[in-house]
Structure formats: C-alpha cells, structure tokens
Amino acid sequence: MCCPALRCRHSGSPLGWCCSDSSGRREFVSTPRSAHECPVEVRARSAENRTCLQASHADMVHPLAETAAESAPARSYLETLLHLGQLLNSSLEVSQVLHIAIEQVVQFVQAERGFVLLVEEGTSRVWGRATHGIDPAVLEAHLSGRDPGNEPQISRSIVERTLKEGRPLLSLNALDDPRFSDHASVRLAQVRSVLCVPLLSKGRPLGVVYVDNRVKTGVFDERHVEMLTAFANQAAIAIDNARLHENVRRSAEERLRLQQELHAKETQRRALEEANKLKSDFIGFVSHELRNPLTTIRGCVQTMLADPELDPATRAEFHEVIEAEADRMLNLIGDLLDSARLEAGRPLSLNPRELDLRPILEKAARAQKYYKFWTARHRLTTRIAPDLPRIEADAEKLHQILTNLLSNAIKYSPQGGEVRLEAYAKDDGLAIRISDEGVGMNEEQRARLFGRYERLEREDIRRIPGHGLGLFLTRRLVELHGGTVDCLSSPGKGSTFIVTLPARQPAARPHADA
After folding, report:
1. Do 52 and 107 fall into the same domain?
2. What local confidence, expressed as pLDDT, does residue 359 receive?
3. Residue ranges making up the domain that contains 414
4. 91, 159, 202, 430: which one has the fewest Cβ atoms less than 10 Å from its Cβ?
C-alpha cells in the first residue's frame, strides 16, 4: 500500500509516496518524473537517492567531527590562558607566582624545561626569576658568565637575540638552524626544539619566557607561539604592576625614613636649644651663687678691717659667717666638679675614714641661718640620737650631701615653717631624716626628682633659682657610700628625705656614674 508522503508547496502534487508491504516494512518512494516511469524505476531511483543522501550526511558529519576534535585543544588553550592570567593577577609576589606558572606552561606546550628571565632595572643584567627543569644556581652561573663546572645547559645567544629583536623566536631544531650555526652555546647545550618569547612593556623588554626540548625536534608550532606570547603579555603586566607596587612601597618607606630622620633632627635641635638654655641659665645661676657668698665674705672682712676694736662676740660671728659662706662656695664648686666628672664618664671617688657624724651635722645646720633663703619665719630644729654610731665615710662628701638637702628644705619652704634634722641609729648603720613644711611634690615629680638638671616646673616656685644638680649628686654620693636616699612627699604638705648609711664601707664600693 502507498500513500502520499510529501506534497509540493506550490502545486500540491505529491513528491513521494510512503509504501509498505505485508511485513510492515516501510520506505519512501519518489514520485515518477513522467507517466511512463514504472514503479520499479521509481524504486531504483529512490535507492539511488538514499545512497546519495547517506553520502551527503557523511560529508557533513566528518567536518563537524573534525571541528569538534579541533575545538578540544582550543578550549584547553583558552582555559590554560585564563588560569595563567588569574594566577598572575592573584598576587603581587610575582616571583612565587611565576614559579607555578612556568611549570604549567612547560607541561602545556610539552617542553622539557622552561624559565623566566628578567632584565634588572637600570642595568642590562639578566637573571633567572623562575625555573622548571633546570637548577636555578646553574642557570644563574651561566647567565652571569661564571663557569659552574659543567657544560652550558642553556644558550645565551637565543635569549640575547630575543631581547634584542623584541619578537618571538621559534626553532624546530636549533642544531640545524642556520641562525645559530656559529653559536657554540647552542651546540654545547644540545638545544633542539626551542621557543623564546619576549616580555614587553610599552615596547621595552622586561625579560623573556623560554621553553625548550633537548630530545625532540618540531615540538613547538605557531599555536604555541600565540599561547606563549599571550602568557608573556599577561606576565609583563603583572611584573610591571609588581614593580610599581615595590617602587611605591620603597617610596613610602623612604618617605617614612626621611620623616623619622627629620623628626629626630628636630628633636635633637630642640634638645640642643634646651641644653643651650640650660647652660646659659646654669652659668648665670652659678655666677650668682658664687658672687653672693663672696659679697658676704668681703663685707665681713671689710667690717673687721675697718673696726679693729670690734667686740670678740661680733668678730667670732663674722668668722662663722665667713666659714659658712666659704663652705657653701666649696660645696657648689664640689657639685660642679663632680658633675663634670660624671659628664666625662669618670667615676666619683671617696676618701673615707672613721668619723663621728655629730659635728658634721651641727656645722651644716648652723651654716643654714646664713643662707640667703633663710627668713625669720624659718625654724631649724635638730634631734641627734646620743647613741649615734661612728661610721666610715668621706667627711667632705657628707657635708656636701647635708648642705644640699638642708638648702633645698629651706629654699622650697618660701612661706617659712619648721625644718627638722634628725639622725639616729638604724640596723648596722644610721639614718638621717630632713623634713620641711614646704610646697611638696606629687608622685610624677618625685619619680623625676633625682635626675640630672631636673627641677620642679610649677608656677608657685618657678622663680626659685637652682641648677638641678644638687639632688642628682646627692643620690650618687649616698650610693657611693653604699647607702640609699628616698623621698616622701605630698603637694602642699612638705617633703621628707631619708638617707641611710652603713657603719662600714663595702669592700668594693660601687662607682657612681651618669
């Protein structure tokens, strides 16, 4: 049985018939070209058409298969490039990234070895940045011209030519390549398949990407050239970015260094200015402190010379004033000399002997009533224990210590009040306690009290003169005797200085230094 299967869109006449036999098999039969064409001929022509159709289908399928086969490497090529690009952009640590990238490049192009060489900025020196399949030390030795003790493993000629020409260099067999016929390094390195591509940034060579195979020839082709060139372009951008980042980092570090240096110089300048000011103030103070005792001494002497009949009591008092003022001058000069020794890095020394401290305490106390800061509002009381032990000490230095502490107690009690001097036995030695009812100090001021040139910066005592050496030297001299000095104080409640001294000097006394 046959039924029309297809009809012409214009005429409506059947183009073919679908025929089936008793077994149910069906086939398409073309419409006869003429009325005289018999069904047998039609069937024959249908068979012929079927054969042609199968041939046409094969002609279409084969190119599609070939295209699909060709698209697989292309897809792999694009995926590799994409991955390498992502890898290069993943970090500014280009050296680490290039090591991973060159390994993948070598595997993709089926090379034996590969490396990335960079031109050092500001020079023509080439050095290895990343390698695969070759020892970096050997590569560096060849690049630097040093003999590593082996035959050359790379051709510097290929690298230099690529850098010079600025374009990819491909050789299917470098040993037979006329371009390298006179290059010994190619023969010695036994380079066969080689591909070297420049790393370019704005036409400027940054280095090269190099791959080779010393076993096979014809390993690389134009497709590999394109792939390696694309990789080199991305690598050049990454290297440029990394160098830019490094330059910015170095600039920032240099700027920070200069700022720190400028700050240090400014600090030094201010310190020098402060030192000059302190020096000027110090010289002025010392001149004044030396002039005052001399003026007093001169007045006493002139009075005694002018009146030979001066009563003995007055004359004795003048003698005491002269001695006290002379001692004060000696004490100040001693402070200056001791400070100069410490500034020069030389230790202070003692001249110890066994002595009774009582007369030294009494003499230092008596001298204070001639001190220029002593007023009618001040009271000085002494309390010296009868069982005060004899000690081994330097009498002159002890007088210097006592004068500094008593003078401070009077000077920093501008409103007057009681100044107490106590001495008593303590442990294996003695303690000296000097208290006042003066301005006092807070904790932060006490912490800086014994520093060199330290003075209290407070409005209520700003006009009280001083050189800032008395307490500094007092502490050094006390420690040189093996003792201690401490201060108890509160603002507005006065201060108490406690000095402890051992009865005997240690076998090896510590040196007092700055």
Report:
1. no
2. 93
3. 346-502
4. 202
DSSP alpha helix (H) spans, 209-311: 222-306
Q: Is the pLDDT of residue 104 over 50?
A: yes
Q: Are 47 and 17 found together in one domain?
A: yes
pTM of structure = 0.45
Torsion of Cα atoms, 347 then 350 then 351 then 355, to 10°: 180
387 vs 327 pLDDT, higher one: 387
Under DSSP, is residue 198 helix (H, G, I), strand (E, B) or coil?
strand
Looking at the DSSP assignment, which residues form a beta bridge with residue 27? Answer: 19
Whether the per-residue pLDDT at 501 is higher than 90: the answer is yes
Instruction: State the Cα–Cα distance between residues 184 and 30, nearest whole angstrom.
Output: 76
Judge contact between 390 and 398, C-beta under 8 A: no
Which one-letter amino acid corresponds to residue 185?
Answer: S
Q: Does the residue 492 lie in any domain?
A: yes
Task: Report pLDDT for 446.
Answer: 82
- Are 239 and 199 in the same domain? yes
453 in the same domain as 365: yes
Domain finish residue from 71, 104, 132: 71
In this structure, which long-range contacts are made by residues 509-513, counting pairs with CB atoms below 8 Å and at least 24 apart in sequence? Answer: 509/350, 509/480, 509/481, 509/482, 510/479, 510/480, 510/482, 511/347, 511/348, 511/480, 512/342, 512/347, 512/348, 512/476, 512/477, 512/479, 512/480, 513/342, 513/345, 513/347, 513/476
- pLDDT (mean) for 497-509: 80
Closest listed residue to residue 381, CA positions, set 367, 365, 370, 369: 365
Instruction: Note whether residue 318 is domain-resident.
Output: no
Q: Are residues 143 and 30 in the same domain?
A: no
Spatial contact of 15 and 31, defined as CB atoms under 8 Å apart: yes
For the stretch 357-395, what's the b/e string if a residue is b when 16 or more beta carbons lie within 10 angstroms of its beta carbon?
A: beebbebbbebbebbbbbeeebebeeebeeebeebbbbe
Instruction: Report residue 12 as tokens.
Output: 């409506």
Give the dihedral sign, CA 268/281/294/405.
negative
- Residue 179: both structure tokens together: 């371009």
Please give the tally of structural domains in the chain.
Answer: 3
Sign of CA pseudo-dihedral 150, 151, 154, 157: positive
Measured CA to CA, the distance from residue 454 to residue 472 in angstroms comes to 8
Domain membership of residue 393 (yes or no) is yes
Shared domain check, 355 and 225: no
